[in-house]
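I'll show a record.
***
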Amino acid sequence: MEIAVVVLVLLLVLAVIAVWYGLRWVRMRRNGGVSVALRWKPDNTRAGWHLGIGRYEGEVFAWYRVWSLGIGPDRVFERESLMIADRRDPAGTEAYAVPADATVLRCESEGREPIEIAMGPGALTGFLSWLESAPPGRRLPRAS
């Protein structure tokens, strides 16, 4: 009898966590979020991709990891310091780890390690528009 209660409690906890993830995902997507995969330390061949939702919050691009119980963003990128250093198509098995028809952008930011962001065509257009719509007088977001 006691084992059945423990199993029931564990199943209930797992169900609550699954509902939490589902509601979080839907809420972020409905509030303007886009599917984005992120990879930090891209020069490390063993670095993997992490799926998440990216949201534009004024002057920052906030990235929320899909499999996280946290409420706040896992990474925040400021438009003022973010620059695109390179652009490429996913190579090899990367195509399975990033959104469909994704383009990979290598981004650099002052004082931070480079990162790679992979996003589909619609999200890419929005991201580039957001970067380029900075206030007048700001340098271009692409490295020379």
